[in-house]
Amino acid sequence: MEQINNYIEHLHDVGYIEGLMAGWGQEGTLAAIESMLERHDEEEVYNALTFLRDAVIVAKQDELLVTLEASSCWKTLTDMLYCDNHFIRMHVVYTIGKLSQNAHSTHLASAFEHYLDKDPILLNSLLFELQWLEEPIDGLAQQMLESPYVSVQLVAMKYEDKLSLDRDLPQYPIDFFFVELGFSSKLRAEDKVDYTIEEMEAYVQEHL
Q1: CA-CA distance, 135 to 127, in Å (whole number)?
Q2: Per-residue pLDDT of the chain (208 residues; tens, 9 = 90+)
Q3: Does the global pTM surpass 0.85?
Q4: How far apart are CA 170 and CA 64, in angstroms?
Q5: For the CA atoms of the chain, what is the radius of gyration?
């Protein structure tokens, strides 16, 4: 695990990635990553997923992705979309999207349905990654615009220029970019790892 944790000091170092994988092999590498994920420690999850993404994308270990998808590590990763730590969920969504397999979009779409009216910040990341995977998001945005929560509507409005909707968008004097930035900082300052939609909505209403 230490070698993977230390990768953060060797970012994009293909030699470091190849050397570690040569010693552990694909299955050993994934077993180490899975063990780190199972601890649900945000720093370890971040380090493990950074290594995994760079192994596939930077070091072009394409076979690792095939092995991952057939392994228990993949189930552990996708199950973590529903963990009780917002920041870990964000790391997981980013990783699943950036591994850039269209088949992965089903996991992101399911997470979207689960978190609609629950986690607007995660919805924003889910929409972005679904777009990255070239999935249509008009229907998802329509659902968000019908939400009773302003914070959820604001996320859909971020994608206004990419949508084809049969309705006018609501107008609010605030951009979700600033909501996400401010509210995420508030969570960090309060040492909180998750939030309720009511807490987010109260924050938005304070800043309208």
Answers
A1: 9
A2: 899 999 999 999 999 999 999 999 999 999 999 999 999 999 999 999 999 999 999 999 889 999 999 999 999 999 999 999 999 999 999 999 999 778 889 999 999 999 999 999 999 999 999 999 989 898 899 899 999 999 999 999 988 777 776 667 778 999 999 999 999 999 999 999 999 999 999 999 999 8
A3: yes
A4: 45
A5: 18
